[in-house]
Design goal:
Number of helices: 9
Structural class: alpha/beta
Radius of gyration: 17 Å
Number of strands: 10
Strand order of the largest sheet: 3-2-1-4-5
Helix content: 25-40%
Length: 217
């Protein structure tokens, strides 16, 4: 049972909190905003029992709070150079993406799709074709349906069709799709990535753990 801190209280952060709570980890959440929506999501997670009242900080990312954890999980909207990530790294706390967290608990093979454009359309079409063939296809990820939120319904004989953004792929470790698809890479997100080379490198991480048993398109 680990102490895990989640950065971000949006949809993927909420689903990561529920997933971690389901495996009996102690969940902490740090959220820079302290607005009505954040307070609403905080209260909902407390009511559900996913997190204890004293384990959420709103309106700041503090060193003392963050360094309670054994592991940090970041939402896609959190930059690699963000303060909480820097604090975790200075405390030698491993940092992974929500996508990596869900992967560690996924019992089914994954078809992962990335690219600058067309990801949602392609992932949706692949999922619909698999369903048309009678398979239990679970379409999730950057498509607006967090991977973490689907783990409870994914079975060993399911097939996960996952839309993966460069933001999610930046902080993977063991993530290994059975099939990976890179549709295209053109200039994008350079407000987040320092240059085109870093953006391309993030995309290419989708296949970094694949081997001769896997497929890359």
């Amino acid at each position: 049972m680990a102490k895990v801190i989640i950065v971000g209280l949006a949809k993927s952060g909420q689903e990561a909190a529920r997933l971690l709570a389901s495996r009996k980890d102690t969940v902490f959440i740090t959220e820079f905003k302290n607005d009505a929506a954040s307070r609403k999501f905080r209260d909902l997670l407390i009511k559900e029992g996913a997190v204890k009242p004293g384990n959420i900080e709103l309106g700041a990312h503090t060193d003392k709070f963050i360094k309670k954890a054994d592991l940090m999980v970041v939402s896609p909207g959190v930059r690699r150079d963000a303060l909480p990530v820097k604090l975790a790294e200075s405390g030698k706390i491993p940092v992974i993406s929500e996508l990596e967290l869900a992967y560690t608990m996924c019992p089914a093979p994954i078809i992962a799709v990335t690219g600058t454009s067309g990801k949602t359309t392609t992932a949706t079409l692949i999922g619909q074709m698999l369903r048309g063939a009678g398979l239990d296809a679970v379409i999730c990820g950057n498509i607006g349906n967090p991977f973490s939120g689907e783990i409870k319904r994914i079975k060993k004989d399911s097939v996960v069709v996952l839309e993966a953004s460069s933001f999610q792929l930046e902080l993977i470790d063991k993530f290994k799709p059975r099939v990976s698809v890179i549709l295209n890479v053109s200039s994008n997100h350079l407000d987040r990535h320092k240059d085109m080379e870093e953006y391309i490198t993030a995309k290419c991480r989708i296949f970094m753990n694949q081997d001769e048993k896997d497929t890359l398109f």
